[in-house]
Amino acid sequence: MDAHPDAPRVLDLVAAKRPLILLAAVTIQAAMYGGHFSFTVFFPSLLDLAGGSRAWLSGVYTLFTLVYTTFMFPVGLLADRWSPRRLVAWSAFVYALGFWLSAVVGSIGQLYVTFGLVAALGMSAGYVVPTASALRSFPDRGGTAVGIASAGVAVGSAAAPPLALRVIETFGWRAAFAAIGTVVLAIVLLSTLALHAAPQVRRAPPDAASEPLAVGEILRAAQFWLLGIVCAANWLPLFAMWTHLFPMGLARGITPGGAAAGVTVFGVASFAGRLIWGIVSDRRGRPLTLGLSLAGQALAFALLAGPGNVTTFFVAVALFGFTSGGSMSLLAVYATDLFGAPSAGRIMGASVAIGGVVATQGPVVAGYLHDVSASYLAAFVLGAALNALALVVFGRLVRRGPYIDPTLRGD
């Protein structure tokens, strides 16, 4: 098929706008995930609302992650067809509304609705849409582009929790919820202007090679389900750490300021991991770098489970942040390696939904294990075991190789 006559002009336009897409992806994810990760510093303030039960309070975050990861699938389908500006702007308004409503709740049940449902619906476009836009804009440097774009998650996780804690200590948790909603909305709406100014490449007239795969075709592929298992096993302990990292520090006898610093260490290490693993994966390949990142997370949990002092805790948190930052960004790129760039939005959304439904149980499981044993030891052991499982399943996925349309195999 002949090239589309406008293709060179459109490609030149997009090449000139690619830095804006990348900058928008970073700031959108920094803002939205900053609010997301700040929930961990709300824990001590909200325990009374939950009757003192960590498991009951963790359920709010579990519902939040269940809703936003599940809705990533339909959002991913829309991301392959619709304007990214429209999707992200809608997401920001609903996200902010959830935080504003959370500022006036009077019971834990109401928090389940305002944060667990409303804010989560807004969160659903916060990762898939900017990440897919960045990936499509840099097809020759997918690992590096997604690593830089998703570094916004690490920036948010490093910067937002200490700031949120300061607001909580000074003005109270209600003011902190309201402030986060307002700031995130402002940042994201400004960032969507860059997404609008940097349109995605318009494809040539449709053909089998350029169109996204059908949903049914993706769901019938063994690679998709193996990828989903890897995501679930890797993310369940990761989601637990996101929620419980601050109280985990307190359980080690660290001061609230020191525990918040642990959250910052995690974020800084995750930022470095996303950048470094992404660059290395473009040069050394996704299978090697992803395998090493999964092994590193298993080791980090083993360090947390063993005897150690405060220094050991910070070393383990840094290792976990560095390696989990790599796996979170590289799994998105590897999904595109398996199924192709035209299907980036839907395959990322679908794999995140499958893995996220399971991973949402992580915070509740960790909270329950702490409630019955007064320790996070069992949660650390479980985290090490699940990452070892993810590594084994990932090895099988690598051996199977990229998805090939059965009609093109020539069998």
Would you mind describing this structure in some detail?
It is globular and about 55 Å long. The chain has one domain (14-200, 212-403): MFS general substrate transporter like domains (Growth Hormone, Chain: A), CATH 1.20.1250.20. Residues 1-13 and 197-209 have low confidence and may be disordered. Helices cover 81% and strands 0% of the residues. It has 411 residues and is mostly helical.
Brief synopsis:
By secondary structure, the chain is mostly helical.
Total number of helices:
17
- Share of helical residues: over 70%
Sheet of most strands: none
Low-confidence stretches: 1-13, 197-209
Structural class: mainly alpha
- Provide the succession of SSEs: HHHHHHHHHHHHHHHHH
What kind of oligomer do you see? single chain
Q: What CATH architecture do you see? A: Up-down Bundle
Averaged pLDDT: 81
The CATH fourth-level homologous superfamily: MFS general substrate transporter like domains
Number of E-type strands: 0
Radius of gyration, Cα only, in angstroms?
21 Å
How many domains, as an integer?
1
CATH domain class: Mainly Alpha
> Strand content of the residues, in percent?
under 5%
CATH topology heading? Growth Hormone, Chain: A
How far is it from the N-terminal to the C-terminal residue, by CA? 25 Å
Overall geometry: globular
Q: Keyphrases for this structure?
A:
Growth Hormone, Chain: A, single chain, 17 helices, mainly alpha, disordered N terminus, globular, 411 residues
